[in-house]
Amino acid sequence: MAQAPEPTTSEEDFSLLKLENQLCFPLYAASRQLTKAYQPYLRELDPDLTYPQYLVLLLLWEHQEMTVKELGENLLLDSGTLTPLLKRMEQKQWVSRRRDPRDERSVIIGLLPAGEVLQKPACSIPKGLLAHLEISTKELATLRRLLDHVIKKLT
Amino acid sequence: MAQAPEPTTSEEDFSLLKLENQLCFPLYAASRQLTKAYQPYLRELDPDLTYPQYLVLLLLWEHQEMTVKELGENLLLDSGTLTPLLKRMEQKQWVSRRRDPRDERSVIIGLLPAGEVLQKPACSIPKGLLAHLEISTKELATLRRLLDHVIKKLT
DNA sequence: ATAAATTTAATTTTACACAATTAAACATTA
DNA sequence: TAATGTTTAATTGTGTAAAATTAAATTTAT
Question: Do B142 and A147 touch (CB under 8 A)?
Fold first, then answer.
């Protein structure tokens, strides 16, 4: 008797720890792969343009100028990430950086002509990428809705 | 005449360039937010444990040992990322690194006792995180399916 | 107005992430 | 087996990412 392989009465559920059962991993991997897929398109605009820099441009194309804080709120990035990134964009003459005269603590990032002219050639990027994904409009909307939900719950 | 505001006959479609209309940004933001949400849980296991290191442990808890190449294939990370990460994990005595005697080019990463004992306390992490998300099982499955599709198309 | 608390951007530190290159080891083929 | 080509991990260089700290400016309360 008692030769049964002892099922460890309080057996831990390790199955939730398998990579395939995680949500975070596919999110993490899909994000990196999609960012990587952007690269050749961004390189065409400028060999130095990175994806996070492109996100800054997307915002500035809409608003012309924003504070570092506003950029961070929109992109969910902090100044420790944005400051060096914006300094590189300043060197490329894509943006200007200056203190807000009404509040010397804030730095206003402004869109410069060299950054502005990148907008038109960037127009073809979204369509090009969507073609890679081979995803229906409906599923795309579902995906975006679910991702927005995740962001909302975690922010 | 010709005082009309010249509607630029070939008006570019800038609306696709708005941040809110992008797929990549929510993916990018959701990934970072979810990784950030993992932090307090991982800190409880060990203050030095990072999310990518946790992913390596998830694989080693399943397979005990894998080559760097196999880890990279599973995580979609290259050796330039994994090598320094694995060296840090080696210093923590979580994993061992040794050449494959049958193929001296390959480095085999093995799970050490100090890495193994982290598995049991890690079991509660997935449930804790899912609670944050407030997402139904069905929607979670949909999200994972769509993310897997994205990964598949881009890899 | 002045001290204290708060806000904000910058700085510092650590850790990914990946393209490009290098170098070593292995495999193939003549 | 010797030359060639391939595979693989490591290295190098650049660019995020984010927590923690610092410092300056502003606001608030006295």
Answer: no
